[in-house]
Amino acid sequence: MHKALLPELSNPEAAAYFTRLIEESLKTRFTQFNFFLHNLAQLKFSADNNGGSLLSFVPKTYSMATDGQLVHVEVVNYRKRYDPDKYYVYVLRVYRKDQKQPMEIQRTYKEFCELHQKLCIYFPLAKLHR
């Protein structure tokens, strides 16, 4: 075990070595197949779990028919909050078709991460940036 940690290398060298190992493992067919199976299992679980498609911070499912088509969304500001620890919320301005006034909503970084995770699950072939 001790030898596997590469004690003869510096921390940056060891980190680079392990990074290369991880990158190589991600290229193998087994790893890609494992991710595929995991995504299938996640889709099945969320389909069985009636609320699985909902995000934790959104109380219901919205649709273009009920809420209108999104035209543009932009981050216009951020705010510092405490609860009791410090965190930030991002202020988003949402423009919808046939609505004169945009709506502003606030989302945390954690909520963006949850949205990204759901998008990756439901659209595994999409090239989403990290």
Number of domains: 2
Residue share in helix: 40-55%
CATH topological fold name of the largest domain: PX Domain
Separate helix tally? 4
The H-and-E topology, N to C, reads as: HHHEEEH
CA distance, first residue to last residue: 32 Å
The tally of beta strands, per DSSP, is 3
Q: By CATH's scheme, which homologous superfamily of the largest domain applies?
A: Phox-like domain
InterPro entries: PX_dom (IPR001683), PX_dom_sf (IPR036871)
Domain PX: 68-130
Organism: Aromia moschata
Protein name: PX domain-containing protein
Summarize, please.
With 130 residues, the chain is α+β, with helices and mostly antiparallel strands. The chain is built from four helices and three strands.
How would you describe the overall organization of this protein?
Helices cover 42% and strands 23% of the residues. With 130 residues, the protein is α+β, with helices and mostly antiparallel strands. It has two domains: 1-53, no CATH class; 54-130, Phox-like domain (PX Domain). GO terms for molecular function: phosphatidylinositol binding.
Which key features would you list for this structure?
alpha+beta, 130 residues, phosphatidylinositol binding, 4 helices, 3-stranded antiparallel β-sheet, PX_dom_sf
Question: Would you spell out the secondary-structure blueprint of this structure?
Answer:
Layout: H1 11-26, H2 29-48, H3 64-67, E1 70-82, E2 86-96, E3 103-108, H4 109-122
Antiparallel strand pairs: 1-2, 2-3
